[in-house]
Amino acid sequence: MAAYQRLLRAVIDGERDAVLGYLGQGTVDGAAPAAPACGAAADAPLRQRRPLPLAPPGSTRWLAPDVLELARELDLDCDLYLDHHRLDGRPVLPAAMAMELMAEAALCCRPDLEVVEIRGFQVLRGIGLDAGPLPLRVVARLRPVAAEPSGAEVQLEIRTGGDSTGPRYRAHVVLADRLLDPAAVEPLPLTALRRFPLEIADAYERWLFHGPLFAALGSVDGVCERGIRARLRPSSPQRCLAGGAEGSWLVDPVVIDGSFQMVILWSRLFNDMTPLPSRFERYLRLGNLDGSELCCEVGVVSRSGGRTLTTRHLFTNSDGTAVGLLEGMESTCSPELNRLAGSSAAKGAMS
After folding, report:
1. Which of 61, 56, 80 shows the shortest CA–CA distance to 14?
2. Residues with Cβ < 8 Å from 60, sequence gap 6 or more?
3. Cα–Cα distances in angstroms (integers) from residue 175 to residues 107, 157, 172, 320, in the given order
4. Are the CB atoms for 323 and 288 separated by under 8 Å?
5. 14-52: pLDDT as tens digits
6. What pLDDT sits at residue 11?
7. CB 3.0–4.6 Å: which of 100, 197, 238, 293 could bond 253 by disulfide?
8. Largest Cα–Cα distance of the chain, in whole Å?
């Protein structure tokens, strides 16, 4: 109780070091780290705060004992990937990068745990850069999980600075003391795959709008009416961000976006429409999206004459072990969006 009272007073007084000490990221008055914060088990092991590329030290603050805010700016000079993800020439925050940003904000609430699931992800309104840097705020509300006393759930929203019109993205992140068991994931039943008709360079030139930093596709193994299989190249924060970013991705946004690009290829091939993601049910983090190459299988269900797609994305490593599963992703498709393909950034992707 005394430790909790110290936390409450530290939050009220804005004493960041004391708050970090209570959370196991430092010490309070020179003492050993206190017990974990809201929802933590009394005997849970404390873990030092790992470096997070989108949430560097000093970017977070506690607004209340269970509410954390992560603040950062979108800036073309720092967020190099923005120049490689343009819609009609306008730099736009990729949904996959918003996913990583919320995962990192959630982990800042409980650095002694692991991000194991992202659920209820919604793109409410996209975030584009028009002139100069744009402030972003990620508000994270920490909740204990009754079924898992040692875990927690975090409700997250991304807003732009001074935005009074509501959040741009929303999701829940589940934290636990260990990653989920990949053996529980069922493989996708993709059979009778046939050759994809375009070379990768041609696909980026004719059907995709992604520049070099987002050119995740290495090869397409095959395609059928029920889905597509491809090889994806993982990325690093140090390549996507300027200024010597530290740490590694929790959910590699370039790999995730690469699987979205696979949906575009499938939709252009079968329906001649370009899809953009709007929401997904859940992403299960079963391991790290790293290594030299990952295999991704995307199962597709097409509705409304191809204007709505629901997809399931399974990521496996070189030995066939599942490392990630994204389920229930909904994308809205339109032939008008075909105009996005072949942007000037994308034309340099394979050069």
Report:
1. 61
2. 68, 69, 70, 71, 105, 108
3. 8, 17, 10, 25
4. yes
5. 444 444 444 434 322 232 233 233 333 333 333 457 899
6. 37
7. 100
8. 67
Helix axis angle, 95-109 to 253-271, nearest 10°: 150
Q: Tell me the residue length of the chain.
A: 351
**Average pLDDT, stretch 308-328?**
97
- Tokens encoding 31: 């003492």
197: left (phi over 0), alpha (psi -120 to 50) or beta: alpha
Name the average pLDDT for the chain: 86
Sign of the Cα torsion 153, 71, 240, 333 reads: positive
Of 301, 235, 241, the residue nearest 266 (C-alpha):
301
Q: In the prediction, which pLDDT does 147 show?
A: 65
Query: Do the domains at 43-181 and 192-347 have one common CATH topology?
Result: yes
| Residue 246 near residue 227, CB atoms below 8 Å | no
In CATH terms, the fold of domain 192-347 is Thiol Ester Dehydrase; Chain A (3.10.129)
The pLDDT of 246-275, averaged and rounded, is 98
Q: Which two tokens stand for residue 62?
A: 């506690």
Helices (H), the chain: 2-13, 16-22, 95-109, 200-206, 237-240, 253-271, 344-347
113-149 pLDDT, tens per residue? 999 999 999 999 999 999 889 999 999 999 987 667 7
pLDDT score for 39: 33
Domain ranges of the chain: 1-35, 43-181, 192-347
**Number of Cβ within a 10 Å radius of residue 88:** 11
Q: How is domain 43-181 classified at the CATH fold level?
A: Thiol Ester Dehydrase; Chain A (3.10.129)
Q: What is the mean pLDDT of residues 293-297?
A: 98
Strand partners, 137: 71, 159
Q: What is the DSSP string of 227-278?
A: EEEEEE----HHHHBSS---S--SS-HHHHHHHHHHHHHHHHHHHS-EEEEE
Q: Is pLDDT of 216 > 50?
A: yes
